[in-house]
Amino acid sequence: MNAPRSLSRLEFEPLPDSSSGMVELSRSPERGFFVAAARDIFLAFRSKGEVIQALVFFIVVVSLFPLAIGAETALLRRIAPGVVWVAALLSVLLTLPRLFASDHLDGTLEQMLLSPFPLTLIVAGKMAAHWLTTGLPLALMAPLLGLQFGLGGDELGVLVMSLLLGTPILSMLGAVGAALTLGVRGGSVLVALLILPLYIPVLIFGAGAVEAVATGIDYAANLSLLGAGLLFGALATPFAVAAAVKISLD
Amino acid sequence: MNLYKYASPVTFYPLAGKLIPWFAALAVVFGLVGLYLGLIVAPEDAQQGQVYRIIFIHVPTAWVGMVVYLVMAAYGVAALTLKTRLSSMMMEALAPTGALFTALALLTGALWGKPTWGTYWIWDARMTSTLILLFLYIGYIALIHAIEDKKRADKAGALLVIVGSVNVPIIYFSVRWWNTLHQGASVSATGSKMATVMAQGMLIMALACWMYAIAVVLARVRAIILERQYQGANEILGFEIAGTEMTGTEMVGTK
Amino acid sequence: MSNLATDPVTVPLSNARTLSAEGLTLTRGSRCLFRHLSLQVSSGEALMLRGANGSGKTSLLRVLAGFTMPDEGRIFWNNRPLAPAGSEARHLLFYVGHANAIKDDLTTLENLAQALAIDDVALANRTPAALSGALDSVGLLARRDLPARKLSQGQKRRINLARLLLIDKPVWLLDEPTNALDTDGVNLFTDIVNGHLKRGGLVLIASHLSIPLAGAAQELNLDENARVRLETIA
Question: What residues of B are in contact with residue C32 (Cβ under 8 Å)?
Answer without folding.
Answer: 237, 252
